[in-house]
């Protein structure tokens, strides 16, 4: 099973204020590459609440590359891939808003949300936040560190496949009935908790 897990942290509530990116590449069910980068956002306001969550400050990113610069390193990893994220609606919104701000064309890829997958796999958890799902699976990590969150999202997805006794993404979404999302030039379709027909959304939709 091949996919890329991704996670973003933001400086504030502006979805284009990326301050870190974590990315994990999985090939044949094994991690083959990882990427972590602090990002200097165009909007350098760091909301104190966000700083308390992820611990990243303006001082940490003063010499970091911009999103535009970092995108050159990761775009080829996402193009044409299956992308996994926990609470994917947030991460995909961050990606779209950041690309819009830089006037960069969207890549084309399908994606799935491990929140949706977890809800259909491990029933009855009191929450499906990443730390709760990780605790259920006995995975220890530093929550809200972009690379560690991406690592855990990848593990959660692999564990869900194992739990559901499937060996492919297609088998998983059919068995647990979740709908994958897609991003493509000028539009996207969201990932759904229940598998059904998705309506495409054209253009850049601001979801802040």
From TrEMBL:
One of its GO terms (biological process) is DNA replication. Residues 2-166 form the Exonuclease domain. InterPro entries: DnaQ, Ribonucl_H, RNaseH-like_sf, RNaseH_sf. GO terms for molecular function: 3'-5' exonuclease activity; DNA binding; DNA-directed DNA polymerase activity. The keyword Hydrolase applies. GO terms for cellular component: cytosol. It comes from the Bacteria. Keywords: Exonuclease, Hydrolase, Nuclease. This is Exonuclease domain-containing protein. It comes from Halalkalibacter okhensis.
């Amino acid at each position: 099973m091949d996919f890329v897990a991704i996670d973003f942290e933001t400086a504030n509530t502006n979805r284009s204020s990326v301050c870190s990116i974590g990315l994990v590449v999985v090939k044949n069910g094994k991690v083959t590459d990882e990427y972590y980068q602090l990002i200097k956002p165009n909007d350098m306001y760091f909301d104190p609440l966000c700083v308390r969550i992820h611990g990243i400050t303006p001082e940490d990113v003063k010499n970091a590359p911009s999103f535009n610069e970092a995108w050159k390193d990761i775009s080829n990893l996402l193009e044409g891939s299956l992308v996994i994220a926990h609470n994917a609606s947030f991460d995909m919104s961050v990606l779209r808003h950041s690309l819009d701000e830089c006037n960069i064309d969207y890549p084309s890829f399908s994606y799935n949300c491990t929140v949706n997958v977890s809800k259909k796999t491990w029933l009855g958890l009191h929450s499906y936040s990443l730390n709760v799902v990780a605790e259920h699976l006995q995975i220890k990590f530093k929550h809200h560190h972009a690379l560690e969150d991406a690592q855990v999202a990848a593990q959660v997805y692999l564990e869900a496949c194992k739990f559901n006794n499937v060996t492919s993404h297609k088998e998983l979404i059919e068995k647990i009935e979740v709908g994958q999302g897609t991003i493509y030039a000028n539009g996207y379709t969201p990932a759904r908790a229940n598998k059904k027909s998705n309506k495409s959304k054209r253009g850049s939709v601001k979801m802040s």
